[in-house]
User: What shape does this take?
Amino acid sequence: MDVAVTELRAHLGRWIDAAREGNDVVITDRGTPVARIVALDSTPVIDRLTAQGVISRPARSTRPVAGDRHRPTPKRPVADIVSEQRR
Assistant: This one.
């Protein structure tokens, strides 16, 4: 569906309803297409990509916790080490 800018301004609600119903509304300025109004896909991107087979869901739903891992403690402040490397 093509619509001139002046017609779009005069009846914007009507054209938004048309896009909401699934029609692509092409906006023209002096006969030249300049923009398009389309309905948004209400399906979340993750669900759509999963359905298309582009991605797959993780095998487990929770991430591992790093609380039980050993974390090394620095012997001196990191800022001192960075300062030395910049000299």
In short: The two ends are 66 Å apart (CA to CA).
